[in-house]
Amino acid sequence: MNNQTKYNFQSETKQLLKLMIHSLYSNKEIFLRELISNASDAIDKMRFQLLSCPEDNNQYQDMKIKIILDKKEKKIIISDNGIGMNKQEVINNIGTIANSGTKSFLKSLNPENEKNNQLIGKFGVGFYSSFIVSKKVIIRTRHFKEKKPEKSILWESCGEGEYIISNTSKSENGTDIELYLKENEKDFLENWKIEQIIKKYSDHISVPIEIQEYNTKNKTISWKKINEAQALWTMQKNQITEKKYQNFYKHITKDINNPIIWSHNKIEGTQEYTILLYIPSKSTWDLWNQDNKKNGLKLYVKKVYIMDDADQFLPNYLRFIKGIIDTNDLPLNVSREILQENHITQSLKKSLTKKVLHLIEKLSKEKEKYSIFWKEFGLILKEGIAEDPSNQETIANLLRFTSINSNDIEQKLSLNKYIQNMQEKQEKIYFITAENYKNAKNSPYLEIFKEQKIDVLLLSDRIDEWMMNYLLEFKGKKFQPVNKIDQDLEKIIKKEKKSDFSENEINQFLKITKEILNEKVESVKLSYRLINTPTILITQNNSMSAQMSKLFKDAGQNVPPLKYIFEINPNHELIKKIIQIKDHKKLKTWINILFDQALLAERGSLENPNDFINRINKILINT
Fold first, then answer.
1. Pairs from 435-443 (Cβ < 8 Å, separation ≥ 24)
2. Based on the domain organization, do 347 and 458 belong to the same domain?
3. Residue 381 lies in a domain
4. Looking at the structure, do residues 199 and 269 belong to the same domain, yes or no?
5. Mean pLDDT over the full length of the chain
6. CA 541, 544, 547 angle in degrees (round to 5)?
7. Which of 2, 177, 363, 547 could bond to 465 as cystine, CB 3.0-4.6 Å?
8. Strand locations in 412-554, DSSP E?
């Protein structure tokens, strides 16, 4: 070995190795699935590289994964003739954990719960699972561009904090992984055991997997293919078991959980393509990461792997979808730039989007499964209301809400169900947005709706305020925020309007209140939507809401002050008392307190809470 250099693992990698060896995998055989999956990916990448090297295409047919069991040395060798790695790639891929999600997860991990976590596969660090059964691992790899065999790379580690990299000689491109097994892991040196594991986890892989067999009688070596070695999506659906679909999903996603539903279709006509699309049962850490450009689709052209993360075929709000698309209509040398502008791509995107929405519609018929889906991906699906106007009604039909009649924080109510339950004269879908469910549920704006048994959607997700700027109606029913003027509301309110004061006394009080508040409000009027609250603030239908204004301010945007309509409940005991106050100075203090109370209920905060506190203290002192 030449140019031997010793390196230390990153601290996160050391922690991960410790978890691997001592805690994580109760099912040790998973290590073989992970290593076979990595080898298969390397061969897929090599196939793609060969598209630009026609003279080397003779290698294409011979690509395979080989397994050798050496009982004498107590080791397993897993070899592929894929793309291989150069020195820097070995350091990047093996010596470090590049994925920040893994780092964050490890940092927050409670040591007491280590045995309960399910890290492997979630962050694509499956190689390290080899240390569950191995006391030492050696990697020999040669990148396909490296022309000198002696410039191949050797990586060696016992998984205890450091690794060695040196040069070695390797006659062909690809990677060999040698696992020197621990004393209590000798079962993995039996051919039948390895064949059983391959059949269980990797039968679907399109790359042939061969195991070496030794005939003791004739003293000859032969190779036996032990997997189906056919691309799963090219098979007839009636030939594929549910378990095979699940294993294929785990292979392409590195997810340890089963998908919640999938769709496998071959489309023929003006376009020819096959899709195998999955909806996961768990969201990943990076779905909300703005720097993350990954999408779950792998692109194949005429069964040849082209690229991962093909984000041109689905809109961003469906980025949680995983799977493959195999088309006959694109050239083999297609690039991301060509895909972006290609009319075939746009046509496929339109078709795939409809198929995914249809799949989600199918899932929505199963309440328990859809509840899981909504908790994991509901927020992301809501983005589609603004992003995809052409499918807006279909997406809206898939949305789930909670409401005052639901009396449950879990979002289960569909818009169709809301419309079915509407009051006889009700023409609008009422909703309120707030920072959280509790604030929405207890808002004073809901008092008259609760009394009249008119249901109101309670929207408290961070995306809801933005979404409702685009979701204006559903099946002919307009959406109406409860904190804005609504001429139709009084038509369905069955409440007699009466007061203990004369019309003149009321009008005089409203006039004085407007003079005191001056530019703070657009107007002052009586309210008959309030029951237990003295005052509220509402706005015109075409004005920005308080929640949206707050979002813009939080983002550093300049927002013009909102013009409120100050509504007063003349039947509230506090209002009855204040109307009779003759001292203008005292009345002014009370009016400003009422305004601040209403502002606090509307916005959830005050620009100057100290003024509010001082006014209350002044009132308390003089009481």
1. 435/460, 435/547, 435/604, 436/460, 437/402, 437/409, 439/604, 441/404, 443/482, 443/601
2. no
3. no
4. no
5. 85
6. 115
7. 547
8. 428-433, 457-459, 473-474, 477-481, 521-526, 535-538
Write the burial class of residue 293 (CB in 10 Å: 0-12 exposed, 13-18 middle, 19+ buried): exposed
Q: Which residues pair with 221 in a beta bridge?
A: 214
- At 508 the pLDDT is 93
- 3-state SS assignment for residue 345: helix
Q: In the prediction, which pLDDT does 543 show? A: 67
pTM above 0.90, yes or no: no
- Examine the fold and report which residue of 492, 521, 539 is the final residue of a domain before the chain moves on: 492
Q: List the structure tokens of 110.
A: 């409670």
Q: Are residues 213 and 236 in the same domain?
A: no
Domain-located, residue 384: no
CA distance 358 to 384: 14
pLDDT of residue 114: 43
pLDDT reported for residue 124? 40
- Asked if residue 466 is part of any domain, the answer here is yes
Q: Are residues 35 and 164 part of one domain? A: yes
Tell whether 211 and 245 lie within a shared domain. no
221 belongs to a structural domain: yes
Distance CA(354)–CA(337), nearest Å, equals 24
C-alpha 259/C-alpha 280 separation (Å) is 4
Are 227 and 208 spatial neighbours (Cβ–Cβ below 8 Å)?
Answer: yes
pLDDT tens-digit readout, 205-262:
888 999 999 888 888 999 999 998 888 999 999 999 999 999 999 888 888 899 999 9
Dihedral class, residue 437 (left if φ above 0, else alpha if ψ from -120 to 50, else beta): alpha
What total number of domains does the chain contain?
Answer: 4
Q: Determine the average pLDDT of the residues in 287-315.
A: 78
CA–CA gap between residue 236 and residue 23 (Å, rounded): 40
What's the pLDDT tens digit per position in 348-371? Answer: 999 999 999 999 999 999 999 999
Amino acid at 88: Q
Is the domain of 184 the same as that of 320?
Answer: no
CA angle 250, 252, 254 (to 5 degrees): 50
Under DSSP, the state recorded for 551 is H
Q: Which of 458, 492, 526 is a domain's end point?
A: 492
Q: Which of 329, 341, 176, 355 is nearest to 265 (CA)?
A: 355
**Residue 218 token pair:** 């004739």
Q: CA–CA separation, 51 vs 66, rounded Å?
A: 23
The answer to whether residues 329 and 300 touch, using CB atoms and an 8 Å cutoff, is no
Q: What is the pLDDT of residue 126?
A: 72
The 10 Å CB-count burial string (b at 16+, else e) for 220-255 is eeeeeebbbbebbbeeeeeebeeeebbbbbbbbbbb
Phi, psi angles (nearest 5°) of residue 214: -115, 120
